[in-house]
Amino acid sequence: MSWSQTNDAFSEGLPSPSFRSGPRIADIGTSYSRVVVVPPERSWRKSVLQRLETLMRLKPGWDGYRAQAVTLDTVTFTLQMLESTCSNKVPAPEIVPGISGDLQVEWHTDTVDIELHVRSANNVHAWRACPETGPDGEELELDIDFKPVIGWIDELVERPADADTAAA
User: Fold this and answer.
1) Residue 65: exposed, middle, or buried by beta-carbon count in 10 A (0-12, 13-18, 19+)?
2) Three-state secondary structure readout of the chain
3) Fewer C-beta within 10 Å: the chain N or C terminus?
4) What pTM was computed for the model?
5) How far apart are CA 146 and CA 33, in angstroms?
């Protein structure tokens, strides 16, 4: 089987180019087909990229003392983490730098608080407080499995609709 036949078999069933939330196949005008993976469109992506770019420009000592600069590795990992855990429905998080070159990614609503302390790539302290957890919340140490955070963020997005339904 040729590369072209293998690729055609692989690409069969993938979304058409008009599908905007996942990978798309692009015709690049050659005898070979290629899969071009395009990041899903996210309403929060532009503001997050702008914020991360700003934080990348911080110089050592940005706090007036001895704060470390945010590293490219930490910024890249943070963006990849957000792309993997947040749908288009998720509001843009607040992102603040820490003095150790780390990043704090946060969402706060009337009933839910989620904080992801990205200390470095694959080194995240996650905390959430909501009515089910009480004010002390729950904490997790994460490296590569962010499934619990996906659930937390999905609940964050769904909660306002639940509150509106209950009020009606």
Assistant:
1) exposed
2) CCHHHHHHHHHCCCCCCCCCCCCEEECCCCCCCEEECCCCCCCCHHHHHHHHHHHHCCCCCCCCCCCECCCHHHHHHHHHHHHHHCCCCCCCCEEEECCECCEEEEEECCCCEEEEEEEECCEEEEEEEECCCEEEEEEEEECCCCHHHHHHHHHHHHHHHHHHHHHC
3) C
4) 0.73
5) 33
User: According to the model, what pLDDT value does residue 160 have?
Assistant: 56
Mean pLDDT by 10 residues, the chain (168 residues): 42 40 58 69 92 96 96 95 92 97 96 96 96 93 95 86 45
Residue type, 141: E
The pair of structure tokens assigned to 105 is 């990614």
pLDDT score for 32: 64
Counting every residue written for the chain, the total comes to: 168
Tell me the helices (H) and strands (E) count for the chain, helix number first: 4, 7
Whether 95 and 64 have beta carbons less than 8 Å apart is answered as no
pLDDT in tens, 4-18: 444 444 444 434 333
- Residue 161: both structure tokens together: 């609709």
